[in-house]
Amino acid sequence: MKRLLMTAVCLLVGFGAMAQNQVNGRIEDAETGEVLIGANVILEGTGRGSTADVEGNFSIKNVPNGTFTLKVSFVGYETFNREIQVPVGQLDISLERNSLLTEEFIVSATRASETTPTTFQTITKEELAKNNLGQDIPLLLNYTPSVVTHSDAGAGIGYTGLRIRGSDQTRINVTVNGIPMNDAESHGVFWVNMPDFASSVDNIQIQRGVGTSTNGAATFGASMNIQTDTKKEESYAEIANSYGSFNSWKHTVKAGTGLLNNRWAVDARLSQISSDGYVDRAFSDLKSYFVSGGYYGDDHVFKVNVFSGKEQTYQSWYGLPESKLEDDRTFNYYTYDNETDNYQQDHYQFIYTGKLGQNWKANAALHYTYGRGYYEQYRADDDFASYGLEPVVIGDETIESTDIIRRRWLDNDFFGGVFSLNYVSDDGRWDAILGGGANRYDGDHFGEIIWARVAGDTEIRDRYYNNNAVKDDRNIYAKATYEVAERLYLFGDLQFRQIDYQFQGVNDDQRVVDGQQHYDFFNPKVGISYESGNGKTWYASYAVANREPVRSDFTDNPITEIPRPERLNNVEAGVRVKQGNFSYNANFYYMGYHDQLILTGQINDVGAYIRENVENSYRAGIELDGAVRLSPMWTLGGNIAFSKNKIDEFTEYVDDYAAEEFQQESFSYTDTDIAFSPNIVGSAMIDFRPIKNMEISWMTKYVDDQYLDNTQNEGRKLDAYITNDVRFVYTLRPRFVKALEFNVKVNNIFNEMYEPNGYTFSYFIPGGNGRELVTENYYYPMAGTNFMAGVNIKF
Q: Which DSSP letter does residue 327 get?
């Protein structure tokens, strides 16, 4: 009997093993036949699933015999359900586009399409996720064309920024769901106030050059159009945790209901990021949340987004003196224990998009942002006069300076609305958009003395300066694409932008800054594109952008001598190609500036450095990027940009402390390189997939020499550098969760010592020949070899 039982068990085990099957298939768009990479596949009742690979193929292993329901889902498509009998042959699955109105229209008015004659690239959620281990969005975009990134703390967490084609963050327009994000006064975007925002982003489109009309600050080098997460049909939850060098941590929790009653959905995220920083004491403590709720009808979508970021960072703004560059790269000038920046921004967006009949779609959004915060500073031996205070007399002693701790505050409100109305003709030849927006910024700037070694006649929280600024920004644009012949498209885009800016009160240098300015800007754009077949699109365009000065140009200059607004004339021409496993883009650009504002060393009446207009300057270049999939295991990609960035003529002013009375000496320059504008920027990527669900990537970045100012002086330069990063991504699909993702990224694997950002100033002092020129360079060094490792659990 025992032998019989053992034989029966062995036979059952053998039959069971033989009954384990594999379910294979391929997923594509039912209309276009395009493979749907990343489509989610679940075999209900088995706890097993898969995702479509780069060829649209999926495979589910170890499936027993039986009848099961196969469910396939992908964003923007109807969920596919089919009962299958296992074993089963190869499954070819075509997904139909979702009949519900998609959220893509929310951002379409300010975006470029495949027929738009401008230079652009779209970065998907999947591409962002591979690098999203805690660093800010600029670092996640490091390998996109013509991009140079930098970080004050050296590790990519805290204050970070990027330049595109040499244009800094103040010249790059950023919108989220079509809503402006640039600060109305400085024109900057402070990513530190949006920690882990990438975890709530569906995709980012970067348009280089002027691009198409958008809302908010003028596009003067590039624009970044961000779309937040779109609806997910299935409920989900995610827990993501990362740890890395410099005691860097990232904790993220996400959850969503999926579609409830086929109409409602709620999504939420909570994040915390912390790091000690590469630079000494340059810590970051960042918190954020994102909540989105929406109603999704057949013809109408209503959506509410609420998100917030709160940051505390220890200041590393001062930079690293050149004398410390070789032996003390982590040096931090600041030593006061609370030399910190503290700020919080709360964002509220109410968005509507809908179909208005067969040919019309509409989008409208109301928004409100509340920002408030301060940075705290210890100031040794500061003059009382700098704070509008009288000297302190104690007995026979008159004290004119003392140690002070101060806080400089911002408290601002930004609100308004944007809209777009889209018309597509019955034959599809006309695609026209009327759009625009109106926004108001109301900001208070004030400073407080919270401690003084010798206080005198002062009270804590006394404001030593206080001023207010109100800025109204209105724009309206009309853009249209017309198919004049088969696959030949004409494009036109006309924008009128109007700005009213008024400011009053006392500035931080104790000057009264009362004034107001009005600007009317007309920004036309025209272009042509041609789809020649075989996946090729040729394009050419001409665009104009006008830009008002920033806050400091008003407050630091005498009100009667405010700089002129800047003007940019932009030509773009190129080709986009996508053919099977091979794709590439090649383009030429010319960006001619009139009255570009630059630092020249000129000072105002209280010694603050101001920007001045230079009559003519330009950027011209060629950009190439592409990728080829050599096999299911190997993919090669890369980009390179060659450019020339010149100022025709300008005058530099140098402080002269060797003279009997302080003065400035002037020097004239012609045909010099624009500061922070490398002539070559390139990246290369190799992706290797040795086994299913594993990807190993090698990424190389090259940035050519950059000058710290506009004199093209070899003694004021950032050296060229090459960095190499390695990334490992591996996904498991155990039965108890949807996915278990492991991600390790080793940055700067060869320990390159490099600095992508800095500043410089020069002055004369008494010397052997009467005077001596001294140049002081300061740098923001990046970390050597460092890593981040993360685990993401999806339910």
A: T
First to last CA, the chain: 47
Element (DSSP H or E) covering residue 744:
strand 739-747
**What pLDDT is recorded for position 14?**
46
Residue 6 — very low, low, confident or very high, per pLDDT cuts 50/70/90? Answer: low
Report the alpha-carbon distance of residue 483 to residue 460 in Å, rounded: 67
Rg for the chain (alpha carbons), in Å? 29
Q: Which two tokens mark 795?
A: 């339910």
User: Over 60: is that where the pLDDT of 12 sits?
Assistant: no
Distance CA 513, CA 529 (A): 49
**36: confidence class by pLDDT, cuts 50, 70, 90:** confident
For the stretch 323-327, contacts whose Cβ atoms lie closer than 8 Å and that sit 24 or more positions apart, written own/partner, are 325/755, 325/779, 325/781
SS3 633: coil
What is the DSSP secondary-structure string of 567-624?
EEEEEEEEEEEEETTEEEEEEEEEEEEEEEEEEEEEE-TTS-EEEEEEEEEEEEEEEE
Q: What's the chain's length in residues?
A: 795
Q: How confident is the model at residue 752 (pLDDT cuts 50, 70, 90)?
A: very high
Residue 607: is its pLDDT beyond 80? no
Among residues 171, 144, 209, the alpha carbon closest in space to that of 675 is found at: 171
Identify the weakest region by mean pLDDT among 104-108, 181-185, 260-264, 445-449: 104-108
pLDDT over 90 (residue 745) = yes
- In angstroms, the Cα distances linking 746 to 38, 562, 723, 788 are 25, 48, 11, 7
Whether 16 has a pLDDT exceeding 90, the answer reads: no
pLDDT, residue 15, reads: 42
Phi, psi of 88 (to 5 degrees): -145, 155
C-alpha to C-alpha distance for 510 and 386, rounded to whole angstroms: 7
The larger pLDDT score, comparing residue 523 to residue 99, is at 523
CA proximity to 137, closest of 161, 155, 118, 107: 161
Of 46, 47, 44, the C-alpha closest to 73 is 44
* Non-local CB neighbours of 79 within 8 Å, separated by 6+ positions: 71, 72, 73, 233, 234
What is the token pair recorded at 227?
Answer: 């779309």
Core vs surface per residue 322-352: b (16+ CB within 10 A) or e: bebbeeebbbbbbeeeebbbbbbbebebebb
Handedness of CA 745, 751, 752, 757 (dihedral sign): positive
Parallel, antiparallel, or unpaired: how do β-strands 634-656 and 758-765 relate?
Answer: parallel
Winning range, highest mean pLDDT, from 579-583, 679-683, 736-740: 679-683
13 pLDDT tier (thresholds 50, 70, 90):
very low
For position 2, what pLDDT does the model report? 56
Domains and CATH numbers, the chain: 2-95 (2.60.40.10), 105-228 (2.170.130.10), 236-564+576-794 (2.40.170.20)
Could you tell me the two tokens for 550? 């920033």
H-state helical runs in 37-177: 105-108, 125-131, 137-140
Asked if 27 contacts 93 with a C-beta cutoff of 8 angstroms, the reply is: yes
What is the distance between the alpha carbons of residues 190 and 187, in angstroms, rounded to a whole number? 10
Tokens of 192: 């530190």
Q: How many CB atoms lie within 10 A of CB 181?
A: 26
Beta bridge partners of 460: none
**Token digits of residue 709:** 């100012």
Residue type, position 163, single letter: R
Q: Which of 676, 686, 732, 723 is nearest to 702 (CA)?
A: 723
How does the average pLDDT of the chain come out, rounded?
Answer: 92
Assign 670 to helix, strand or coil: strand
369: confidence class by pLDDT, cuts 50, 70, 90: very high
Let me know: does 23 contact 2? Beta carbons within 8 Å.
no
Look at residue 100 and tell me whether its pLDDT is greater than 80.
no
C-alpha distance from residue 418 to each of 106, 373, 434 (Å): 11, 27, 11
Note the pTM of the prediction, 2 decimals. Answer: 0.90
